[in-house]
Write a structure and sequence with these properties.
The complex is a heterodimer of chains A (about 110) and B (about 120).
Chain A: E1 3-6, E2 11-14, E3 19-21, E4 23-26, E5 32-38, E6 44-50, E7 56-59, E8 62-65, E9 75-77, E10 86-93, E11 101-103, E12 107-112
Parallel strand pairs in A: 2-12
Antiparallel strand pairs in A: 1-4, 3-9, 5-6, 5-10, 7-8, 8-9, 10-11, 10-12
Chain B: E1 5-7, E2 10-13, E3 19-24, E4 31-38, E5 42-50, E6 53-57, E7 64-68, E8 74-78, E9 87-94, E10 106-107, E11 111-115
Parallel strand pairs in B: 2-11
Antiparallel strand pairs in B: 1-3, 3-8, 4-5, 4-9, 5-6, 7-8, 9-10, 9-11
Classes of the chains: A mainly beta (about 110), B mainly beta (about 120).
Chain lengths: ~110, ~120
């Protein structure tokens, strides 16, 4: 079946540091890939997405590129802020006519001033 | 446009009871999905409804059920509650019309269920 493997957390960085959160996937077809973010006490918010190979999703300074050859969708940001502290989830959606999302385990990110 | 709303936000029940959670999707969205989030199992897919029909189902026991109304609002029901059902239950909506998994799902704030 489909699965998503995420970088183990928690991750602690200083403000303005470079961020990478690794995500790899296993899928039988050609899934769409997503990064969601969850702030304390809230639901999930879509951060960015990519629907086909070599697509780059970007939002709020975050970027991720759909790499079919390495089955990866790593999240990056050049300079993190304290407000980026949250839990980040990588997810995939199967292209088989349904809306089911398969999530990774989540990576807790803490940014210290 | 108003976002996905879920009621109630918090709920405390005892073992053996049943519970009903409600979700109102974004206006115009016809697909509603439910997820369970726990510290141990992470985010797990429960089921998805589209136009009042269950279109997909995850690996949960029959105690977990749902339905969708003609206005796309959805409810999920858990009967005979167990301690392990304590979780954050998230609802997500999407247009549901692409049929190819490319629709973005928009999540509500969740209902925090505690079973004592």
């Amino acid at each position: 079946g489909n699965s998503v493997t995420q970088m183990e957390g928690p991750v602690t960085l200083s403000e303005e540091a470079f961020l990478t959160i690794n995500c790899t996937y296993t899928a039988t077809g050609y899934p769409s890939l997503f990064w969601y973010v969850q702030y304390p006490g809230e639901g999930l918010q879509l951060l960015l997405k990519a629907t086909k190979a070599d697509d780059k999703g970007s939002n709020k300074g975050f970027e991720a590129t759909y790499r079919k050859e390495t089955t990866s969708f790593h999240l990056e940001k050049g300079s993190v802020q304290v407000s980026d502290s949250a839990v980040y989830f990588c997810a995939l959606s199967e292209l088989v006519g349904n809306e089911k999302l398969t999530f990774g385990t989540g990576t807790r990110l803490t940014i210290i001033p | 446009k108003a976002g996905v709303t879920q009621t109630p936000r918090y709920l405390i029940k005892t073992r053996g009871q049943q519970v009903t959670l409600s979700c109102s999707p974004i206006s115009g969205h016809r697909s509603v999905s439910w997820y369970q989030q726990t510290p141990g199992q992470g985010l797990q897919f429960l089921f998805e409804y589209f136009s009042e029909t269950q279109r997909n189902k995850g690996n949960f026991p029959g105690r977990f059920s749902g339905r969708q109304f003609s206005n796309s609002r959805s409810e999920m029901n858990v009967s005979t509650l167990e301690l392990g059902d304590s979780a954050l239950y998230l609802c997500a909506s999407s247009p549901g019309t692409s049929g190819w998994g490319t629709d973005t799902q928009y999540f509500g704030p969740g209902t925090r269920l505690t079973v004592l």
